[in-house]
Amino acid sequence: MAEKKALHAFIKEELIERIKSSDYKVGDQFPTEHEICKEFNVSRTTVRIALSQLVQEGYLIRQRGKGSFVAEPKAHQTLSHTNEHFDQQLKAQGKEGKIIAKTIDVIAAKGSKQERFGLNEADPIQKIKRIRMVNNEITQYEIAYIPWHIAPGIKKEQVEHSLYKTLTNDYNIAIFKTTEILEITLADKDISHYLACEVGQPCFFIETIAEDKDGKVIEFSRSYFRGDKTSFKVERFY
């Protein structure tokens, strides 16, 4: 049945296919371990592994004493070139986004940040911590850095919207190019605090460098996304 694939992986993929094809709809109670064991003729341990992975990957939600239920679809974000901002992408999915600024601090330029922005040592850099929410659930934690001389005195209300729009509208600075590196990481204590997830939970990690048309680095950020709440789409045109 599962060829060379582990049984739990085979069962997990079969159950994911049923969720994606709407055999099980959002909010539906999922079959019990016993029912799945009986259907696939496998041990409870095998089924338990498959279901645990489905919970960890955001397909199911467990409710103590009630069982497992099909979760809301993940919020999709397009990484390739698009004229649509993230809020527009969410609206197209029938979801509502919100940005909350947690802290705005001013730090002294040194090390890699001094070098990245081409600053003198101890020049002021604004460090902005924000979270993004989708349908009132935290999905992203971001730490952004912008030199003071580029956009002096950024305020909380300015960063609770698109940061790039704020730079354009309030400081007359246009972002011409971004370079993004996507990796997988595990949530540490700080990340888990802001993402409201468990320490060690797998997360997407994106490092972004934003430049103007002259190649000057305007903003640098590190963003962490809950892997059970977020997925990414990449489009290529040839």
CATH architecture label of the largest domain: 3-Layer(aba) Sandwich
CATH class of the largest domain: Alpha Beta
H/E element sequence: HHHEEEHEHEEHEHEEE
Query: Terminal Cα separation, in Å?
Result: 39 Å
| Rg over C-alpha atoms, rounded to the nearest angstrom | 21 Å
Q: Based on DSSP secondary structure assignment, what is the total number of beta strands?
A: 10
- Major sheet summary line: 6 strands, antiparallel
Unreliable parts? 80-84
User: CATH superfamily name of the largest domain?
Assistant: Chorismate lyase-like
Measured by DSSP, the beta-strand proportion falls in 25-35%
Count every helix, treating DSSP H or I runs of 4 or more residues as helices.
7
What's the quick description here?
The chain contains seven helices and ten strands. With 238 residues, the chain is an alpha+beta fold.
Please describe what this structure looks like.
The protein has two domains: 64 residues, Arc Repressor Mutant, subunit A (Orthogonal Bundle), CATH 1.10.10; 159 residues, Chorismate lyase (3-Layer(aba) Sandwich). The strands form three sheets. A six-stranded antiparallel beta sheet has the order 4-5-6-9-8-7. The protein has a two-stranded antiparallel sheet with strand order 1-2. The radius of gyration is 21 Å and the shape is elongated. Helix 1 packs across helix 3 and helix 2 crosses helix 3. The chain has seven helices and ten strands. It has 238 residues and is an alpha+beta fold. It is 27% helix and 34% strand. A hairpin with a 3-residue loop joins strand 1 and strand 2. This is Putative HTH-type transcriptional regulator YbgA. Keywords: DNA-binding, Transcription, Transcription regulation. InterPro entries: Bact_HTH_transcr_reg, Chorismate_lyase_/UTRA_dom_sf, Tscrpt_reg_HTH_GntR, UTRA, WH-like_DNA-bd_sf, WH_DNA-bd_sf.
